[in-house]
């Protein structure tokens, strides 16, 4: 997984931010905060995990499947897949 090794520091920073968000959910539940606040925190966690997933998936496609910057049909399909996944994971 060369693409994850290359971006290791950046990816780990994102994971640590997600860990902090999850801990905020835990604190909110322990403190019996309002449902709306807890749901807002959960939505932020979901978005952060989705973005991380999309980034790792994009690296996988770019590094192991095809060159999405190329000019052939497979490259266009790879770009489309990356765009759809990024949109879906938001």
TrEMBL record:
Domain of life where this protein originates: Bacteria
Alphabetic keyword roster: Coiled coil
Sequence similarity: Belongs to the FrmR/RcnR family.
Name of the featured protein: Metal/formaldehyde-sensitive transcriptional repressor
InterPro entries recorded: Metal_Tscrpt_repr, Metal_Tscrpt_repr_sf
Pfam families (alphabetical): Trns_repr_metal
Coiled coil: 8-35
UniProt KW Transit peptide keyword: no
